[in-house]
Amino acid sequence: MKFLTKLSLLITLPLLLCSCAGGSAEREDTGSVRYFRLASGQSENYVTNQACIHFCDLVAERTNGMVIIKPYFDHALGTEDEMLEQCRFGGIDFVRVSAAGASKYAPQLTALQMPYEYLSDEHLFRVLDGDIGRTALHSLYASDLDGLTYFYAGFRCFFSTQKVLDSLDDMNGLTLRVSSSSYMTDLVRQWGAQAISLSGSDLAAALRSGEVDGAEDNLPAYVDSGYYQLAPYWVYDRHTYNADVLIASRSSMEQLTVEQRNIVSECAAEAARWQREHWINAEVRAMMHASRSGCYMALMDSDEADRFRAAAQPLYENLTEDQQNIVEAIRKQADSDTQ
């Protein structure tokens, strides 16, 4: 009898232990809260960073608190290049960067950011929201990055410390800070100026010291970063319509369940729609703030704009065949009433 009792224990105890272990493993896969970090430039008040906060809140709400994303702004986790590199290896889980910066890992994105490529916001949105934009975004996957969505980044214009740059002749001999993309460096050289690449955190010091004569950015970033106080001459040249990208680390996404990954993607798309709706108000507020602060906000004469545009055309010849095909497809999606 005692032998049977011991035999029963020997048989049932391992089964119980396996059952408990299996239950524990299942709870760990589906019941553990996951914590992630999102990195971005500019301040918390910047409209696109408000969209990032909206994204984090949506994810927490729709995963019932099981996926928590904490945002870090003002380049607290590094420069744009550093954030992207960390994101590739899971050191940072999500980043919001410019499409120009991300093009280092997805050359197709370069073809979406060429100067004087878009005729309107609607033209840009049609490209970003369609097959061209989706294909370019998904090409990040080969670099261990998961492109989630685009944020609208407005049109980029030049601002300077000494005078309005509303003539092509004004560019001669200047030193201008540009985004970290080869095409912008080449573009400024085409216009007769010297291009220098600086992080956003270093630009203010460079403007203050006279190391650079000016730079280019969108209007909300111009005000949010305080550049308007150092370089009060702004010209609406609109040399590029721009986009930012919200990117996830592939290794971080793989920690989530399929349902959670779908929720993250849906929340990113919803945050992008929210950001697009709020962007125009951010531009108006920035324009009014800069004007009231004494900045000179100038329009560019159409004839001068044509000179700038013509001088930029040789850049298109340096694109790869694949990039040129993308540019041609983008042109075909131009507004029907402006072709």
| Ends distance | 95 Å
* Residue fraction in strands: 15-25%
CATH class: Alpha Beta
Alpha-beta content class: alpha/beta
Describe the structure.
- By secondary structure, this protein is α/β, with parallel strands linked by helices.
- The protein has one domain (33-331): Bacterial extracellular solute-binding protein, family 7 (D-Maltodextrin-Binding Protein, domain 2, 3-Layer(aba) Sandwich).
- It is built from 13 helices and nine strands.
- It has helices spanning 2-31, 47-62, 80-88, 99-102, 121-129, 131-138, 182-190, 200-209, 219-224, 250-253, 258-292, 302-312, 321-332; strands at residues 34-40, 67-72, 94-98, 145-160, 175-178, 194-197, 214-217, 233-249, 296-299.
- Strands 1, 2, 3, 4, 5, 6, 7, 8 and 9 form a nine-stranded mixed β-sheet that branches.
- Strand 1, helix 2 (47-62) and strand 2 (67-72) form a beta-alpha-beta unit.
- Helix 2 runs antiparallel to helix 11 (258-292).
- The longest helix is centred in the C-terminal third of the chain and has 35 residues, at 258-292.
- The protein is globular and about 65 Å long.
- The N and C termini lie far apart (95 Å).
